[in-house]
Amino acid sequence: MTDATNGQPDVIDERLILGTGFTEDERPEIVERFVPLGKRLRSYSGDSVELRLSVKNRGGAEQRVTLECLLPRAEPLVATSSQPDMPAALTEVRDDLIHQLDKLKTKRDPRHDRPHRP
């Protein structure tokens, strides 16, 4: 699958592994929901990114969605959600992982975190 905005392969669709609790039939909806995450991952080589999505106790009161991101030269990033609504849980893990990626980028290159001086 190709990202329409720049013609490069869609990192999410190619590198997302659906683990326990998800089926391949759900992939298109999940990939669509994770598009903003894919934009953050563009700076990494597509084959160096690994994403794993899983859920425990799906549909139950103790549902827990986990999204793991493995990047080169970085500790694994893990986002979790206990939201009972699956779309809300997917959005929460996506947003948490985006936040972690932004922090990682700032940590690696802190000069971009400073305010711009005219």
Describe this protein with a few key phrases.
118 residues, alpha+beta, Double Stranded RNA Binding Domain, 36% helix, disordered N terminus
Describe the 3D structure.
The protein is an alpha+beta fold and 118 residues long. It has a single domain, classed as Ribosome hibernation promotion factor-like (Double Stranded RNA Binding Domain, 2-Layer Sandwich). The chain is built from four helices and four strands, in the order αβααβββα. It has a four-stranded mixed β-sheet. β2 (50-56) and β3 (64-70) form a beta hairpin. α3 runs parallel beside α4. Mean pLDDT is 84; it is low at 1-9.
Just name the CATH architecture: 2-Layer Sandwich
Annotated CATH topology: Double Stranded RNA Binding Domain
Largest sheet at a glance? 4 strands, mixed
Number of helical elements: 4
Radius of gyration: 15 Å
Low-confidence stretches: 1-9
Helix content: 25-40%
- Based on DSSP secondary structure assignment, what is the total number of beta strands? 4
Distance between the termini: 41 Å
Beta-strand fraction estimate: 15-25%
Widest sheet, order of strands: 1-2-3-4
Number of domains: 1
- Give the topology string: H per helix, E per strand: HEHHEEEH
Helix/strand layout:
Elements: H1 11-15, E1 16-18, H2 27-33, H3 35-41, E2 50-56, E3 64-70, E4 77-81, H4 86-108
Task: Characterize this entry briefly.
The protein has 118 residues and is of the alpha+beta class. It contains 4 helices and 4 strands. Strand 3 and strand 4 form a beta hairpin.
